[in-house]
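Database export, one record per block. Field names are fixed; values are copied verbatim from the stored entry.
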Amino acid sequence: MADRAFAPFLRDLKRLPNLVSLTRIALICVAAGLTYAGYPGPGLALGIPAGLSDYLDGYLARKRNESTELGALLDALADILFNLVCLVLAAKYGVWGFYLLLLWGFRDMTVMALRASAGQQGFTIPSSLLAKVAVNFNYYSYVLLGLVIMEPFGPDHVMTTGIRWLGLFGIHAGITMQWISGFIYLRSYARQYRGLDPN
């Protein structure tokens, strides 16, 4: 009887898009461990495919018609973990300030709370194009972050400085766009919330 209860969960867990998401989570953890231990090269080598796989699981889910609630959960978990790890490592190595982690975290927790509340009330908050653009800015900035940590040209080389500033611009632009999209989500929530309020 217990096996039957878990059957839908296990069936969805074995779907290819969800296996890609699980692999992404594993790669992120290993990449973070390697980078934290002082091996940023191998960490970056694993981190790049982990980031790129974010496009793959969604594509497979749509193409194979295998979109599931579990898949959405795993994708969101992988996204949160990826951003968290990168911003923590950026602060640890002194590449970017800790305030970026706080700005990203507060915005994402707020959006998650809005979506959870919307779900409880029976409506959804659709994703915005701006948020998707922001994710791309962040991901490419994380690649630049990895290069700065690796210092392939040396710590004081003009290329290292240029990469650092380019990444700094990218992550600020990405988080700014995320905040703007957060206000769009808040407005959408407030509109639909009012629509459900009889008063």
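Remark 1: Residues 93-199 form one domain.
Remark 2: The chain has two domains: 1-81, 93-199.
End of record.
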